[in-house]
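[Discussion] Sanity-checking designs against the backbone

I'm trying to build intuition for which residues belong where. Below is a structure token string of 106 positions. I'd appreciate it if someone posts a full sequence so I can compare it with mine line by line.
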């Protein structure tokens, strides 16, 4: 169940990051409300995942995969460019997350 909660926390993290851009500095009501709900959902589900997972593993994967998802969806939704340095960074994040998962033995 911990990995399910972590995956849900990652989805909330991506929604939070993308929603923050949509709030226009928290001047738009509904994007602001949804962004705050996503932030709360992400922290709550991360806390559920961390009941079982080591914080070093769970938090790193949450932020790493959340960052990758944010960049990918940012490119789709906000037409942000994905450059070679971004691609290399994705590869490093994925390699690090996989290494942590393997090192944790879970």
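Best answer:
Here's mine. Compare freely.
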């Amino acid at each position: 169940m911990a990995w399910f909660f972590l995956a849900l926390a990652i989805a909330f993290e991506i929604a939070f990051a993308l929603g923050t851009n949509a709030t226009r500095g928290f001047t738009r009501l509904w994007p602001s409300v949804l962004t705050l709900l996503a932030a709360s959902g992400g922290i709550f589900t991360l806390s559920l995942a961390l009941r079982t997972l080591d914080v070093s593993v769970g938090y790193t994967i949450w932020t790493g995969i959340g960052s990758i998802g944010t960049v990918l969806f940012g490119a789709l939704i906000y037409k942000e460019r994905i450059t070679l340095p971004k691609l290399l960074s994705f590869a490093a994040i994925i390699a690090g997350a996989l290494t942590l998962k393997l090192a944790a033995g879970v």
